[in-house]
Amino acid sequence: MRIKKNIATSENGFIFNPATGDSFSGNAIASEIILAMKTGIAADEIKQDILQKYEVTADQLDRDWEDWMVQLKEANLLEN
Amino acid sequence: MIIAITGLNANDNPGPGVAVIRALREEFGPALTIIGLSYESLEPGIYLDTIVDKTYQIPYPTAGTSALKDRLEYIHEQEGLDLIIPNYDAELYNFIKIAPWLKSMGIKTFLPNHEQLDARDKINLYEFGKKHGFSVPADYKVSNVTDLTKAAEELGYPLVVKGKYYEAYINHTADVAQKSFHLLSAKWGLPIIAQQFIKGTEINIAGLGDGKGNTISVIPMRKLYITDKGKAWAGITIENDDLIKLAQKFVKATEWKGGFELEIMCDADGDFFIMEINPRFPAWIYLTAGAGQNQPAALVRMAMGEDVEPFTEYTVGKMFIRYSWDHIIDIADFQQFSAFGELSVAKVNL
Fold first, then answer.
1. For the domain that residue B81 is a member of, what is the CATH number?
2. Residues 252-271 (B) with a CB less than 8 A from some CB of A
């Protein structure tokens, strides 16, 4: 699943969908992940980077990632 | 350049006049003189001396074109008008009718014709959609409670009940729908429209057609804050090619001349339904100037005979947030306008 290319993010976690006018407040990590997804970095690579940077187990990250993708889908931020 | 403008009622259900004037002042600066045309003495725009230079009262549309011509003739003698921009749905019929007479007096307009006006009327909107391939919610013209009951059986609840010119209510039961029917028929006359309810996101599009099928400007806006009257109190420009194509299709199909607003509902599947087509600029029109496509200014240029190239870009994510403001005036101003039907705020001495 790829994130829509026109989604705008700011460093402080603000996310704006210019096609719908929806905006969301995320945290800095959310913004960082969206930015990585927009540039086409694969999910596995992003997750690997998170595992290196933060204290989180691979299992926990997988669960969180699934939840993250559901949120992105519900927010209409993913390509169909 | 001297331009007369209606729609000065900048209240909680505002007319577009003040916003149109702001856009024009931004473009044309001090070279512009604005003559307000007002129906009532408590329209706020009358008393805003940075908005209007002078305001004249004009007769209600129901008084007919003869009364309107008499009044405009007097105003023209005083001010030497170059252009009139009417901004209310209910007055457009008369202004279109007298447009040739205005032209003979040297006063320009930039308006659709009566056929174009009628085609997009709420009463004809469903047929208009069918004819031109637009998705429009099913509706019924309702002249009595029996008709309303039949419409509700067909369309179900919630049911949208709309006034002939303005106002609409979403009704969840037959009792409430009947109350809306009586309220709107008493206020705006018959028929009223019972329309299928579409759940979704409200998007409005402000547009400008050149009368030859070309779209000069399109700005789509997502409503962010909606008042209990269904008006946008805050909104944001959005980027959506399908919405722009929809507006262009409307202009091409009708060869629309002048400003217009498409009221769109985007349902859960992302399909667009045209809920209404307003034959004039919306009250949020100043956002088009803020986003880089000053539609009122472009209309003025076309009305004055200039060739205007279609805009191609605008700023996405530009927002407007409307606010209320207690403007203090002296009773002398109010008295002047109420008694004499004309007022230049800066010229009233206490």
1. 3.40.50.20
2. 266
Domain containing B335 equals 2-110+326-347
Any chain A CB within 8 A of the CB of B2? no
Taking residues B301-321, report their average pLDDT: 97
Residues of A within 8 A of B239 (CB-CB) are 6, 18-19
Look up residue B5 and give its two tokens: 């403008």
SS3 state at B283: coil
Q: Two tokens at A69?
A: 């993708």
Residue B209's nearest CA partner among B245, B243, B260, B246 is B260
> Which range is most confident: B4-13, B185-194, B297-306?
B297-306
Within chain A, where are the H helices? 28-38, 43-53, 58-74
Given an 8 Å threshold on Cβ–Cβ distance, is A8 in contact with B317?
yes
The pLDDT, as a whole number, for residue B346 is 67
Same domain, B178 and B264: no
pLDDT by residue for chain A (80 residues), tens digit each? 788 888 988 888 899 999 999 999 988 888 889 989 988 899 999 999 999 999 999 999 999 999 999 999 999 899 87
Rounded to the nearest integer, the mean pLDDT of chain B is 95
Q: Are B241 and B231 in contact (CB under 8 A)?
A: no
Do B146 and B100 lie in one domain? The reply is: no
Same structural domain for residues B288 and B334? Answer: no
Both B163 and B149 in a single domain? yes
Q: Assess whether B209 and B314 both reside in one domain.
A: yes
Q: Considering its fold, how many domains does chain B have in total?
A: 3
Clarify whether residues B192 and B209 are in a common domain.
no
Q: State pTM to two decimals.
A: 0.90
H/E stretch holding B14: none
